[in-house]
Design brief:
The complex is a heterodimer of chains A (about 240) and B (about 750). By secondary structure, chain A is of the alpha/beta class. Chain A has one domain (about 1-235): Class I glutamine amidotransferase (GATase) domain (Rossmann fold, 3-Layer(aba) Sandwich). Helix content of chain A is about 25%, strand content about 25%. Chain A has helices at about 15-25, 65-75, 85-95, 150-160, 215-235; strands spanning about 1-5, 30-35, 45, 80-85, 100-105, 110-120, 135-140, 145-150, 165-170, 185-190, 195-200. In chain A, the strands form 2 sheets. In chain A, strands 2-1-3-4-11-10-9-6-7 form a 9-stranded mixed beta sheet, with helices on both faces. A two-stranded antiparallel ribbon of chain A has the order 5-8. In chain A, strand 3 (about 45), helix 2 (about 65-75) and strand 4 form a beta-alpha-beta unit. The longest helix of chain A has 19 residues, at about 215-235. Chain A starts with a strand and ends with a helix. Chain B is α+β, with helices and mostly antiparallel strands. In chain B, a hairpin with a 2-residue loop joins strand 1 and strand 2 (about 90-95). In chain B, helix 7 runs parallel beside helix 10 (about 245-260), helix 16 packs across helix 26 (about 725-740) and helix 19 packs parallel to helix 22 (about 615-630). Classes of the chains: A alpha/beta (about 240), B alpha+beta (about 750).
Amino acid sequence: MKVGVVTFPGSNCDYDAYAAVQHVMGEDVEFLWHKSTDLLGCDLVILPGGFSYGDYLRGGAIARFSPIMEKVIAFGRSGGMVLGICNGFQILTECGLLPGALMRNSHLRFSCKHVYLKVEQTSNPYTQLCIKGEVLKIPIAHGEGNYYNFDNDIKKLEDAGQVVFRYCDVNGDVNSEANPNGSINNIAGISNKEGNILGMMPHPERVVEDILGSADGLKILESIRATIAVAKTVSN
Amino acid sequence: MDRAYEQPLVTPEMVAAHGLNEEEYARIKEILGREPNYTELGLFSVMWSEHCSYKNSIALLKTLPREGKNLLTETGEENAGAVDIGDGLAVVFKIESHNHPSAVEPYQGAATGVGGILRDIFTMGARPIASLNSLRFGSPDNPRVRYLVDGVVRGIGDYGNSFGVPTVAGEVYFDEAYTGNPLINAMAVGIVKTDGIISAVAKGEGNPVMIVGSKTGRDGIHGATFASEELSKESEEKRSSVQVGDPFTEKLLVEATLEIIKKGLAVGIQDMGAAGITCSCSEMSAKGEAGVEIDIDKVPVREPGMIPYETLLSESQERMLVCVKKGKEEAVREVFDKWGLDSTIIGKVTSDGLFTVKLHGEVVSQVPSRSLVLGGDAPVYHRETKRPAYMDDIVKFNIADYSLDRDWNADLLTMLAAPNICNKGWVYDQYDSMVRTNTAVGPGSDAAVLRIRKTRKALAMVTDCNGRYCYIDPRLGAESAVAEAARNIVCSGGHPLAITNCLNFGNPYKPEIYYGFSEAVAGMGEACRVFDTPVTGGNVSFYNEDPERAVFPTPTIGMIGLVEDVNHITTQWFKEENDVIFLLGDNTEHLGASEYLHTVYRQNRGPVPPLDLASEKKTQDALLKAIQSGLIKSAHDVSDGGLAVTLAESCISNLDYQIGATIQLDDSVRPDALLFGETQSRVIISCIPEDVLKIEELFKEHNVPCYRIGTVGGNSLKINDLVDQSVSAMSDSFFKAMSEFMDRLE
């Protein structure tokens, strides 16, 4: 597979995503410069974590206007795989590829720590190798990760099975103590209806080797690889 | 400015207001052969300030060990120290204070402290890989102190998080001595190919000099001078001396700077910190034994009407001075354009040894570069010392005065919840400790450990200083700081390589303060020789006083260690039931200067526990050997809070795996000293039962005291018949204390 990692000015997890794909998985990966308008034929576009354009206004608020985003939006709308991690998730909600908004954490502080995620959906290209209800240990690092949407829209998301990850405790219990930022229904990651676009606040690219405290992020990357491999076989 | 610029007349009052004494002013006149004009007065004022010139410290700093086989830079000669770590790589690191700015404007003060030290790393061509912070505040009972803690932590977090460097280790220490004058010491660590290190030099006549990064504004004028006087009520009015940080620009600046270095476009680079353009121009050209001439009107500025004096002394952040290879100007400009940053040629290297400033072609200031800088004509003073009277009183201590009729279980929980001991997750959870995915051991163990990609190696790093020890006995306190830093590195599986230091003291013109400084430097030097950890550089911060008092003498040590193989990385927490626990070192009946006295009796009193550097070194060498042989499952140094706290931390500090232990100690030592005394050179280790004999043999062979004291297991920590405390109660006390005292509203 070929992965593109967008570099906005202020992205700082772009290299981590790049390294996870190249060094750990041994797959092709390219940086996509924010001023470029060419996705270089990538099978997956990653919008990485960081503070695009400084994020002084609001996470992702400026990045959505980048030249590359026009292409990313078209790619996602036509079924291309787009993964937004942390700031990337914020950008996906800002540009309308995913519903809702990410507000400041309810405790009003930046928070970086390992958390546990319950996998709610496995019919999705990003989690197809996980078991439903499986608990993954993946870190968060954000100040604005408090997922919000109107009650009706939350209900629609839930009913359509678009909630992919929820914050939980080590035993998989979804409760308020395990919620690190105040997100409604402990939501940590959602997809669009079709499932090809995923946004998540936790950082799977940070946990791809045991030396980094967990390798659970690989389950997401391996799911992506399997999805793309199948898609390529079919199209061939 | 279109009209001809007329400089204000220099008056004696103006000279005094610039912090220059009569002797210094006479010297300036001698150097120039005339009276300085207003602009030149500003240059000398800031460059001869304590902050830039080290005039009251350099003579003693030169006594520190500065030699080592792997050092790639001369101490203090570059923006940061560099040490060869093999595989064609070097580690670059430095620590620096931002105390005064943080005292009046905690958020920006701390943020720009982080920004400044990061620039020191990447101006050398190194990619910053980690940030550390050593923080000291007054008692958290004081709401103003909590305001400072909150602002400083947010400032450090927001800057480092946005820049994209993991903040992985540090200290947070509370004592009333730091109430009005907190200490904010920021350290940064970077990695560079040994052949990619670039110097802070301007040379080669005709090479253009460029200013890159942010525009120059009126912020931070005389910041260095502000840092060189005591804090007072009026200090609040000096907020305009505090710079404002922009981590987004710094992130762009690091990428652009590393790119021009990699492309070989630069002769030398220096960041603009204290004293801004003045410092970088004069230091770079002095080092290159050259001169530099700049057109001040070419400097991009944020607002109209800035006079040369302001532009030259501005400490606006996120700027660099680059001496470019002639003919490469366009290539440099292209790189900075790509990153959306200004890059402007403001002058050129000359051969006359002068720092010349022109405004619309007219010279407004011209002084020899060397005359401004440390190692050139900047003054060097030897100050008077006098042993302070309190030192004789404070060591008077009779252990028999302290009751033994106590509930040790309750005392253990009190200690685990004490501000100086409790878990600092409230602080470090606000820092991104994992970005760049190299963090093998983050905050919360003895030292942080970062793997080095594409090698088997890792770097261990730590900051350390026990201010109370240094107050009671500055020489022994400084020795202890080095010893404990080294012990932390070894416990993490590393071999201590070198140190950087941040020397925080009061007013050097007070002989009692200078006594503390000279003793601390002596102790640090002695310990560094024993551990073979040369001093690669650092920073001196004097005038850390508020109207009430001076801070404790606080020589913060930042130490780097090399872990030869990632398999040697060791953490402090117990790993598995039935593992066997050993104590390295001897328990003695020593309670003086302890955190226990501070927490339970509100006393900073009694002699500092003695330290035998040779036996400490022996213990560390043997421990490292045991770790490298794969025998050690956990290692935790015994320091603040003594044995009971150390054992409790080994039980509870890994939230994913908490477990109890049963300990039997056969020493005839009073319970308070046994549990909470801080006898030095001790370590708690654990191993699998099958390795017990090998451990005993190894330490016996090295002549290091090693006692089998217990077993890992159960749900509580039991020590003799003194302590039987549940893991959950210890965990609650330890982990919840800081949010309880920080998040309260009153």
